[in-house]
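Same chain as my last thread, 88 residues:
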Amino acid sequence: MAKQENPLTGEALIKEVCRRIRVARGYWDAHNNAACRGERDRALALYNTLTKEQKEQIPQVLRVWLRYRSEKYFGEHRTPPKSKRKSK
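reply #2:
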């Protein structure tokens, strides 16, 4: 994935945060935890750049999933995922 030349701002940034949260929830529903963790981290990084007013424009169901529900499973207090072992 190529880096964007111009960082997202305003409405485009809000849409991208919503999109990334929905993608993460899709991975969550598919039990693909590694992909979900990565997408959630990207969504959270973008979410944390938003102003309070912009955060309020994110649908509440998405905010709740990102900030609270997923924190239960992916928070810092959790044991990190193990790397896959190669069989001999």
